[in-house]
Amino acid sequence: MKEKVIFLIDGQSFYASVEKSARPDLKDKPVAVGDPERRSGIILAACPLAKAKGVTTAERVGQALAKCPDLVVIRPRMQMYINVSLLISKIFESYTDQVEPYSIDEQFLDVTGSLHQFSSAEALAEQIQAQVMISTGVWTRVGIGPTKILAKTAADNFAKKRTEGVFRLDYTNMESELWPLSVHQMFMVNTRMARHLYRMGLLQIGDIARMDQLEFRRRMRLEMGKQSDIQADYYWQISRGIDPSPVVSSIRKKLKSVSHGKALRSSLYQTLADIEVVLLELVVEVCRRSRGRGYMGQVVSVGAVETDGDRSWGFGRQMTLQEPTSLTHEVAAAVRILFKRYWSGSPVSRLYISLDALTDDGVMQLTFFNDRVKAYQREHAIDNIKNRYGSDAIIHASSLLESGVARERAGQIGGHYK
Ligand SMILES: [Mg+2]
User: Fold this and answer.
1) Is residue 248 part of a domain?
2) How many angstroms does the Cα of residue 298 sit away from the middle of ligand 1?
3) Does one domain contain both 119 and 208?
4) Distance from Cα 165 to the centre of ligand 1, integer Å
């Protein structure tokens, strides 16, 4: 079987890059995206200039300003970032119909069928980078591989560190490039898992790959207990570049559910205000994907993993709505109710949202009352990025979230200023 060629394309410092391209006067200034009026809030993105001065993503605004006093902190304008992300998807879709959003600034492309028009995968990657740069001002990095995980690993560990921003990781250089990486760099290995692997004396990805699969399973059982076989097989396969998951195109795909989740550094997500920022990001993404695929859903699910530093526990709850929807404010309202009802108040290390019981939205629109039709059309119009991206297309925060959101946060989209 012919090897696939998959790209993972990542926007560098995405929110900050979008802001800088919208504000040429900031070109030579260190810029970060966060709430300038909440020093305890989190830096969501920092431009390379700011990073060079020590500013890091997910640290407190106050901490960042202490390190870099001339840092320009800009309020996030989520809807603009979503629009730019959609515009970038459109560019990708002009090269292949297999485009799968992974997050707001990362997308997978299966370009196997498009390569005959280009001298190499790298040449195609460069052309896409140039086109995205011209259209949006965002510099992208391209990881190339025969599987999604190799492409993602190529992007995160190699392409991001190179000036040309392109790197290919495949079965010819897996042993020389992938295997010497620390197990902590491995896809889906968090700090806790890395600690287990270190304790087992497995420091590099190659240490797993070189082991017999059954032997690795046996060692994992000793370390983690009997239920670890599935994990053991998964990590062993990843270490050898085995990953059958296809790029699932966002177009014409029958779906049962649309979901999105995010792992978080739990030390930073302790307050409802900070957690809600992420919940809303997830809702926005899930609703965008639902509309893009022509679906509405009637069941909203929220999952969270909570931790006290030693122990982790979680909940997953769902709610059936009166009617199907893909409207951001309606899904967000249900998510907030569910989360507040079941959250025990501990720091959160993972959040997950899904919209299930999907139906074709063409039919559902007919049953909408007027205000919902308008809301749908407005959100859909925003999805269709033709409009100049920017403030006109932005949804008013008041319509996105119910009025109950803390007064301090009025005028924000779940903690992000619109
Ligand atoms: Mg990025």
Assistant:
1) no
2) 32
3) no
4) 12
- H or E stretch covering 324: strand 312-325
Query: Domain check: are 265 and 188 in the same one?
Result: no
Q: What is the pLDDT along the chain (418 residues), one digit of tens a residue?
A: 678 999 999 999 999 999 999 999 999 999 999 999 989 988 989 999 999 999 998 899 999 999 999 999 999 888 788 889 888 988 998 899 899 888 889 999 999 999 988 999 999 999 999 999 999 999 999 999 999 999 999 999 999 999 999 999 999 999 999 999 999 999 989 899 999 999 999 999 999 999 999 999 999 999 999 888 888 999 999 999 998 888 887 654 556 788 888 888 888 888 999 899 889 989 988 998 888 888 889 999 998 888 887 888 888 889 999 888 999 989 999 999 999 999 999 999 889 999 988 877 765 555 555 567 777 777 777 766 433 343 333 333 333 333 223 223 333 433 444 3
262 CA distance to ligand 1 middle (Å): 14
**What are the b/e assignments for 165-191, b being 16+ CB within 10 Å?**
bbbbbbeeebeebbbebebeebbebee
Of 123, 139, 169, the last residue of a domain is: 169
**Catalytic-labelled residue, pool 19, 100, 106, 285:** 106
Range of the domain at 185: 177-239
CA of 10 to the centre of ligand 1 (A): 5
DSSP-derived secondary structure for 38-68: -TTSB--EE-HHHHHTT--TTSBHHHHHHH-
pTM for the full model? 0.62
Q: Note if 223 is an active site residue.
A: no
